[in-house]
Amino acid sequence: MSSLGRRSKKVYGKIASLDDLKQWVTDFGAGLGVDVETFSSNYQGAILEFIHESAERVDAYIINPAGLTTVGEGVRHALEDTGLPVMEVHFSNISANAGAARGLGGGAINSSFTHTATGLSMGMRHYSYAAALTALTLGLDDQDFLGAEAD
Ligand SMILES: O=C1C[C@@](O)(C(=O)O)C[C@@H](O)[C@@H]1O
């Protein structure tokens, strides 16, 4: 994701850098009245440390597992252990066939995050984050859904 600006414009759209993405998501959250804390790293251990140290102070996670999508068991497990809602997001539609407009060039991949995620938002460029953030906000405000006390 640190190479966002060099990726296919057709799939990833006009967001030119991770900093731009973080700002866009933060601004979108502010519009919803939500504080967004952003984090990114190319190092799996750093992602694990962030999840561990943030679990007590956040309400939920939105994760784009990017290059870890098919292999990030440690990160997936750490997220599951927080007991918090987790939305998986992707710019691309990772389930699309090869050659599809917003799919990955090589065709569908199987995410190792989806089976324990609360929800999934993908194929909508950076708007996938907007969908995830909106759904999480509504869900957490709903006392019969994500806003309910954890079991
Ligand atoms: O780095 C990425 C980005 C991605 O997660 C997306 O946002 O579409 C899709 C992944 O397959 C890829 O490795």
Structural description of this entry:
By secondary structure, this protein is mostly helical. It has one domain (4-141): Rossmann fold, CATH 3.40.50.9100. The chain is 36% helix and 8% strand. It contains 5 helices and 3 strands, in the order αααβαββα. The protein has helices at 9-12, 18-32, 44-54, 73-82, 127-141; strands spanning 61-63, 86-90, 119-122. The chain has a 3-stranded parallel beta sheet, with helices on one face. Strand 1, helix 4 (73-82) and strand 2 (86-90) form a beta-alpha-beta unit. Helix 2 runs parallel beside helix 5. The radius of gyration is 15 Å and the shape is globular. The model has no long low-confidence stretch (mean pLDDT 95). Residues 1, 64, 66-67, 69, 90-92, 94, 104, 109 line the site of 1,3,4-trihydroxy-5-OXO-cyclohexanecarboxylic acid.
Please write out the topology.
Layout lengths: L8 H4 L5 H15 L11 H11 L6 E3 L9 H10 L3 E5 L28 E4 L4 H15 L10
Parallel strand pairs: 1-2, 2-3
Helix pairs in contact: 2-5, 3-4
The protein binds 1,3,4-trihydroxy-5-OXO-cyclohexanecarboxylic acid.
The site of 1,3,4-trihydroxy-5-OXO-cyclohexanecarboxylic acid has 11 residues, from loops.
Uncertain stretches: none
Per CATH, the architecture is: 3-Layer(aba) Sandwich
Stated plainly, the CATH topology is called Rossmann fold
Strand content: 5-15%
Mean of residue pLDDT?
95
Family: Belongs to the type-II 3-dehydroquinase family.
EC number: 4.2.1.10
Keywords: Amino-acid biosynthesis, Aromatic amino acid biosynthesis, Lyase
Enzyme class: lyase
